[in-house]
């Protein structure tokens, strides 16, 4: 064996040791489980205390508490249900004359990481518009909520009689500009 080949092998030995140590780490990282993949926004949300206002009119609303269990913001953008033509996220907002009016939340309802948002009469809520028929007290309504990343989650809420809040629709809202107790 020549001294030149001996020197070359000695020079590559530290490199070979580094490759041998790094290879298992690289393989483990590349073959990580699906549990390591980021969760969808819908996977990060729970909905409790849910209910829907019984209604004989064209519109009603769903309420409850939405909790974001992740450390990143999620956005509720709308949804679907068999009982209504449209499902939108709504808020109560001040008008130019000092009153409050109901309107769709521009860009969706954002919920910060680790935060909970109450959906309640007179505040943020899920609006069901273009009802396909009356919703009586005691009936259940299934709603699928859509999130900013396109994911969805479904929940069931029971309808309750409720008189209150007396929100006023913003001009051009929904199918009419009439007042509602939404």
Automatic annotation (TrEMBL):
Residues annotated as transmembrane: none
Stretch list, region Disordered: 163-182
Pfam families assigned: PCuAC (PF04314)
Signal sequence bounds: 1-30
SUPFAM superfamilies: DR1885-like metal-binding protein (SSF110087)
Keywords (A to Z) from UniProt: Signal
Source superkingdom: Bacteria
Annotated protein name in UniProt: Copper chaperone PCu(A)C
Organism annotation: Gordonia westfalica
